[in-house]
Specification:
- The protein is an alpha/beta fold.
- It has helices spanning 31-45, 59-68, 116-123, 131-141, 159-164, 245-264, 273-276, 299-302, 326-330, 367-377, 399-409, 425-434, 449-456, 507-523, 525-543, 545-556; strands at 10-15, 50-53, 73-78, 92-96, 126-128, 147-149, 171-184, 343-358, 384-390, 415-422, 437-439, 461-463, 478-480, 483-488, 500-505.
- Strands 7, 8, 9, 10, 11, 12 and 13 form a 7-stranded mixed sheet that branches. It has a 6-stranded parallel sheet with strand order 2-1-3-4-5-6, with helices on both faces. A two-stranded antiparallel ribbon has the order 14-15.
- The protein is globular, with a radius of gyration of 29 Å.
């Protein structure tokens, strides 16, 4: 598109999530685009007037109004192609975050919009967040298809945080605060035995045998050498009672969860998840009490482990559930007590601190391996802490699953801290400052804004270098986690057909990265500092404002109308 003869181009920006809905939208597939829009906005403002709309219905009326005033206009849609409006008069360009090696080039359910190749070909050009996405699009639409690779400009926005929180490999102590709840492995009273403890329906009745009648005294015998007294045999253990129907039900649900988590969850299309979400509603279940209040320091925190995961198996209900009356289970087996999420809480952390930000309901994030590798590598270390900031608005979707996983790993000396809730900028700055390392163990990434943000704060990382991360991750800035490819589905494909590839991080490599990074932080602080400085410099080269701004202006053939450089960090929790 040629430069406008009337002056600068007007840009209309739209994302399905906006400022008023972001705190309630954490965990939605589209919420990451909100953070991309906020990061891109100064770029577009440097090329012309920017109008941010809250609904796609506002685009055409604004377009006609600007046309009548003699001004050109371009609609920038921050949404995947199948959710981009297709019936607008205003010319548009799509901003796409994508993490697989091919784009959908066919459709299903009689919905042609699912075919991205047709939508992008009609629009004629596209903006992507990474080289990996650009290659996936060109693989289908041809090498000459116009694609702009435009990472979000982040580096300058974290100048204040770099100055306020200089990095240190071993943190002397930091206070983290959040409105929500904080789960601390050291105060949960985790017990692996409590997960599958045997259940005794009724205490066994003590059997009192009658005393035997006294035998007649034997005749005296000649003295002989006394024989050693026979050893007293221990009393036999009481027989284990047979498995009851409720106990069988619990065990079945437990193993069903493991099967679902490892084999099925990542194959459930996003389009199907809302329909399956109805099975998350609590229902009376035939639950056995499996954790003794007398043996657990924090009954409220642990009681959820006794629930056979009616929330964590959110999309895999069990058919033909046995009928148990609510009256018979309510008194004996109350529902799990979940933490209060309405208060502002804080926690003190210190030592070598690893941080990760992700949505636990997103199977791509591979968070089970992230936790298990940490607890296994540093299980005997007191001063290693893994802080997980969850970008999921609904605690019920992962709470029981998390507690179960930590209970299975216990006991361990290292510490796992989970923060649930929405962090304001000041609290997010504390989290950046507390980190010794940022950790990513994802199967695929469209960009990974949190990883880039922590690197912009001069923090070295643990991460694979596949998909979008290949643009900025190597051995100079990270402990690189090995990975290999595996087949998977397009997230929206309700047919659940293998049409693309993702990556499988190597658990052993992730474990070794934890071990090596901890040793560096404790024994080689100068080497840690070199890696931290390299991470900041990499982000300076990759996503500082000026070079990204020039690329955007060249793509739209626009002259810069003014310099706009953000100087205050607008932090977020985007996953793309």
């Amino acid at each position: 598109m040629a430069a406008s003869p009337w002056g600068a181009m007007n840009f209309i920006l739209y994302s399905d999530v906006n400022d008023s809905s972001i705190s309630q939208s954490l965990g939605r597939p589209e919420y990451s685009y909100y953070f991309v829009l906020k990061a891109y906005r100064p770029l577009f403002e440097s090329l012309g007037p920017v109008h941010v709309v809250s609904s796609a219905a506002e685009v055409d009326p604004l377009y006609r109004q600007l046309q009548q005033a003699g001004q050109d206009c371009l609609f920038i849609s921050f949404a995947p192609p199948h959710k981009t409006p297709s019936d607008l008069q205003c010319p548009m360009v799509c901003v796409v975050a994508w993490e697989f090696d091919t784009i959908p080039a066919e459709y299903w359910d009689n919905d042609p919009r699912q075919d991205w190749s047709q939508t992008l070909a009609r629009l004629g050009r596209v903006i992507t967040l990474s080289t990996h996405t650009a290659e996936a699009i060109r693989r289908t639409l041809g090498d000459d298809f116009p694609v702009l690779v435009l990472p979000t400009p982040l580096w300058e926005r974290f100048a204040d945080i770099r100055q306020q929180y200089p990095g240190t490999p071993v943190n002397a102590g930091a206070t983290l605060q959040i409105k929500g709840c904080i789960l601390d492995s050291r105060s949960m009273g985790l017990s692996a035995d409590g997960l599958i403890a045997p259940i005794i329906e009724q205490p066994p009745q003590e059997i009192v045998e009658p005393e035997p009648e006294p035998e007649p005294e034997p005749e005296p015998e000649p003295e002989i050498e006394p024989e050693p007294e026979p050893e007293i045999e221990p009393e036999p253990e009481p027989p284990v009672p047979p498995l009851t129907l409720r106990r069988r039900y619990f065990i079945t649900r437990h193993y069903l969860l493991l099967w679902y988590r490892e084999a099925v969850r990542d194959l459930v299309p996003d389009a199907v998840r809302p329909w399956l979400a109805r099975f998350r509603k609590p229902q009376p279940l035939p639950i056995e009490p499996v954790i003794s209040a007398a043996s657990v320091p924090d009954e409220a925190a642990i009681s959820a482990a006794s629930v056979p995961d009616e929330h964590a198996i959110s999309e895999a209900p069990v058919a033909d559930e046995p009928v148990v009356s609510e009256a018979s289970t309510q008194d004996e087996h109350p529902q799990a007590a979940f933490p209060d999420t309405s208060q502002t809480v804080e926690i003190e952390v210190d030592g070598v601190i690893y941080v990760s930000v992700f949505n636990p309901d997103d199977g791509r994030k591979n968070w089970h391996h992230l936790i298990t590798a940490f607890c296994w590598a540093l299980r005997d270390v007191q001063d290693a802490t893994l802080v997980l900031k969850m970008t999921q608005n609904d605690l019920l979707t992962y709470y029981v699953e998390l507690i179960t996983l930590l209970s299975q790993l216990s006991p361990f000396a290292c510490r796992v801290v989970v923060m649930h809730g929405y962090l304001q900028d000041e609290q997010f700055a504390r989290l950046y400052g507390a980190a010794s390392y940022y950790v990513n163990a994802s199967r695929c990434e469209g960009l990974c804004l949190p990883l880039m943000e922590f690197m912009s704060c001069a923090r070295p990382v643990i991460a694979p270098n596949h998909t979008a991360m290949h643009d900025y991750i190597d051995e100079r800035v990270a402990f690189v986690v090995k990975s290999s490819q595996e087949p998977t589905i397009w997230p929206e494909d309700a047919r659940i057909l293998y049409r693309t590839l993702r990556h499988r991080p190597d658990w052993g490599s992730l474990k070794m990265a934890y071990e090596n990074s901890y040793a560096m932080a404790k024994n080689q602080p100068d080497t840690w500092k070199v890696m931290a400085d390299a991470a900041s410099e990499r982000m300076h080269q990759y996503c500082s404002f000026a070079p990204v701004q020039q690329r955007l202006a060249l793509f739209f053939k626009q002259e810069l109308v003014r310099d706009v450089v953000p100087v205050v960090a607008e932090t977020g929790a985007a996953s793309c």
